[in-house]
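Hi R.,

Here are the chain sequences for the assembly we discussed:
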Amino acid sequence: MVLVFIETREGKVKKSSWEVLGEAKRRAAELGQPVAAVYVGAAVDCFNPEVFARGADKAFLLENAELAQYSAQGYALALADLVKETAPQAVFFAATAMGRDLAPRLAARIGVSAASDCVKVEVKEGRLEFTRPIFAGKAYLVGRLRATPQVLTLRPNVFAAPAPAAEAAGGEVVKKAVAIPDGSVKGRVEELIKAEGEEIDVTEAEVIVSGGRGMKAPENFALLRSLAAVIPRCAVGASRSAVDSGWIDHGHQVGQTGKTVSPSLYMAFGISGAIQHLAGMSSSKVIVAVNKDPDAPIFKVADYGIVGDLFQVIPALTAEIKKLTE
Amino acid sequence: MNIVVFVKRVPDTESRIRVSADGRSVVEEGLNFIISPNDEYAVEAALKLRETKGGTVTVVSAGRDEASTTLKKCLAMGADEALLVKDPLAETYDGLRVARIIAKTIEKRFPAFDLLLFGKASVGADNALVPTMVAEMLGLPQANAVIKLAIEGAAGTAEREIEGAAERVSFSLPAVVSAQKGLNEPRYETLKGIMAAKKKVIPVVTLDELGLGGDAAAPQVEVVRIEMPPARQAGKIIPGTPEEAAKALAELLRSEAKVI
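And here is the predicted structure of the full complex:
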């Protein structure tokens, strides 16, 4: 069996969990094994039979009042019990903030290592072989985990999430009451603090419009926000120098000391293309660079480039894209 | 408050990475090494807590002899003590192995501690596994990738970054906390600190002494190969006035690249 942890935020399944379920299904089919989707919560009322249409053969709902709020300790306890019972070959998570917090806790609990942020998974000699970025994507590690189960987190935005099957798919739903001994959960999430407005994180965005030193001042990021507003699922990114200058919050930083991203489209405005920035965004499918300096290294990796003044290009591009998408 | 901070020596983020002839490791020759940037935020957090709460800050690194340079930097920043856990292996990319070494070090050498601080991930292996795995092995709560941290008595609260938002986590001490950019601005070493650190002899503990000799610390991650990403080709430069170029770009993104 292959287990897939389904992450929900405020009752909704995250898109990255559907991506993971899709990939787990494809690999499990090669291995000749069934896939089970795993939900964890107080009472899993957000369970959606869509998991079956999206590839799961079975669903486990792991429940305990203690699990109303996410805690790595509580969730790992619940998952470890299920792992003991089902002896899966692999457990998959999305490499989200929660997946990265939870997967290593489960792995350590059952005494195995894990592979983080995988961008490719293959079946070799009946085992999973993963490819994951190291040095923020300056190189890739192809490896295998010697112990079973193999615990992997998959990078969001890389694997295809299949559309739900048209014909009604069904599967077995197994509810389990999890035993959580008193005092075993010593830390938990108390509160979700939302940013103003509905912000998409750069790691989950389809499109990123990023600004660097060439943006010159914090107020100029408003130009990028206006551009982002006319593109669906678009986030605003930034280079390290823009963040270190205090022009934009560090959560937007793309690169080796920020976030590694793989959107469909990455547009870099006023970013020269320092090696640590290129590491973080070079796996984007399409790259656009706008820079005054024709020799900027960013042009070496860009599919489309405009040598020019970003303060003129961004408003014009915003207007043109608005026309096209309206 | 007794705080132990774990730091790692990694190649500078400016480094170009090359694959060794064996195809399974990275060429170290010619690389400049630094403290992993995330670990600097952890050291700074520890020093700040000591300023208000007293106690000691001990820095620990698992690695080869060269890791003592990284420990000396932390001493020069203001850490009280340092310990080098001598690990003969180069990078194994195995979070469980490192976590086992660290958990054993804590058990054997630091029986009384309040807080274990890490960087959220080492810049290089990029696994972000070790802090959480250590927490699990020692039965401690965790707060990862924190951008705010407050300790009151025997409890702490932290804010950690999640997708497009933050979440507030509360936990009891002792605990594991991993730091990231946004938590603080790491201080520079002082001249006095550098001089004092130079004279300090850093104690060393071996894996054998920790009871991790032989196969006990064998890696579980099999490195099949390390490969370079496919090289990207420079594409086309779009000519014209800013308005013309913007119009042409928008159309190419729609009709040719099909990304908007």
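Chain A touches chain B through 99 residues (CB under 8 Å). The first strand of chain A starts at residue 2 and ends at 5.

Let me know if anything looks off.

Best,
T.
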